[in-house]
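Tutorial, part two.
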Amino acid sequence: MDVGEEHVPELQSLRQKVEYMLEKTFPGQKVSGRTFAELVKERGGSLSHSYFSNILAGKVTEPSEEILKALGLGFGVDWRFFKEESEVVGDVVAGLQFLAKRRTGEISGVAGRGVEDDGLSAELLEFALSLLADTKAKQRPDGVQDGEPGR
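Running the prediction step on this input gives:
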C-alpha cells in the first residue's frame, strides 16, 4: 500500500456497504432514514425510511434489485456496488478516495496514460474538462492560484 493511501475496509455485507457510503457521501453528518428516503425520491427512486433503517440494522441482507437501484440513486453510485460479490466495489471506493484527495488538494490534475487510438471516452473527457474548469475558476485574474501569495 502506498504511503498516504486510505485503508479500504472489507465491504461484504449490504450493511457494511451502506454504512461506508453514508460515511463517505455525508462526512460528519448524521443522515436519518427519512432524509435519505427523501433524497432517493428527489432523484426518481423509491425507498421507505423504515426499510433503509432495517438495512442499517442488518435486518435486510438480500434486497430486490429495485432497492439496490434506489440505494445507488441516493448515494449517486452504480447500484451494482450494493450487490453481493460486486465487481464495482473497488471502482466506487477508488473514485471516492480520488474525490476526497481532490477536495483536500492532494491531487491537482490528471494525466491520461494508455489512451486508446480512438481517444478518451466521453465520460473521461467530460471529467477532465470539469477539472480544468475548476482549476481556472480558482485562479485569480493576476494568474496566481488561490492560496498562493501574490507576486
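The chain is about 50% helix and 0% strand. In part three we will examine how such features are distributed along the chain.
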